[in-house]
Amino acid sequence: MGSKGQLLVISGPSGAGKGTVCKALIEKSPIWISTSCTTRKPREGEVEGVNYFFIERDEFLNRIDKEDFLEYAEVYGNFYGTPKSEVLKMLEEGKDVILEIDIQGALKIKSSYPKGIFIFIMPPSMEELRNRITNRGSETPESLKTRMECAYDEISFASKYDYAVVNDKVEDAVKKIESIIVAEKCRVFKIKDELLGRF
Amino acid sequence: MGSKGQLLVISGPSGAGKGTVCKALIEKSPIWISTSCTTRKPREGEVEGVNYFFIERDEFLNRIDKEDFLEYAEVYGNFYGTPKSEVLKMLEEGKDVILEIDIQGALKIKSSYPKGIFIFIMPPSMEELRNRITNRGSETPESLKTRMECAYDEISFASKYDYAVVNDKVEDAVKKIESIIVAEKCRVFKIKDELLGRF
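^ inputs. structure came back:
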């Protein structure tokens, strides 16, 4: 029996660049990224199975009943959830899996799947976070203020995670996550039985 | 100020190749390797400050009294010890430090310096360990048997370590240790105060 895959749960405040980091990571490494389900309608340009699996409300509720979500939440009347069976199947096959997920979702997964590796992507500084959000050009002064306050609150959750990776340069952040994956596979408490079984 | 260095304590059964791995690691990475003190006489070819610091018994006993060893042991009438002040100074300056040390010594350091990162170098298999020890050509059948039994006992101590690295290929083992060093610098419980202090 080979060792099973590892579940990486990656969060961070909006603007920390977790999407960019995850995208660069899956391009370089043999990691499978889980796609969430949602009941909201696709936006222009969104692709089924890439951005989300777009499913009907009834199906979503049905899958909640069958406990087929690692976590789910209702936001502004729409459901969002992480499908369980597919993630567990990949892990069972020995594949490493990434979930890029918000902090509330990550904390729910931490209680249901504590074996996961919880990584928090940090902006290098609040100034840099402000620059990144401002450069998107879609914020009013008021919404920028709200987002910065929200990010500040979110950063305090970093202490609930196993690792914090400062996203100064994307390639450096990716290398750190790759190192975390390698190191976690050497952790004695995870591999003890398999390793000592050889001798 | 700034993050301090990390202490890597590297052990493993004789024949696992920990010496080769440590040598390759310090050639590649900016890590300082601690040199032990001993009261035994230098052997042919051994260099003061490289293999050991060769010191007199009185000086060794004096330094024990001054608690200047992270750990020490007496083996066949000779003392061996890891100098404390130099290691702590390097760590304080932010340098990562390796101690290549036997299992008993490592376990002593674990109780006196639990912040250390304890890495156990494993042979890929008992067969391979036997080959490596045999290929040195210096063993009689009897001493080989003793060494293999001793190695077998030692391997059971792997469970006391944080990480186990199988030394199949030296360069792979070195990469894994480098990954462990990088990952440990991202561990939230170590960097929380410094990291959250920025925000």
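The longest strand of chain B covers residues 69-75. Strands of chain B lie at 7-11, 31-33, 37-38, 53-54, 69-75, 78-83, 96-100, 117-122, 163-166.
thumbs up if we can close this ticket
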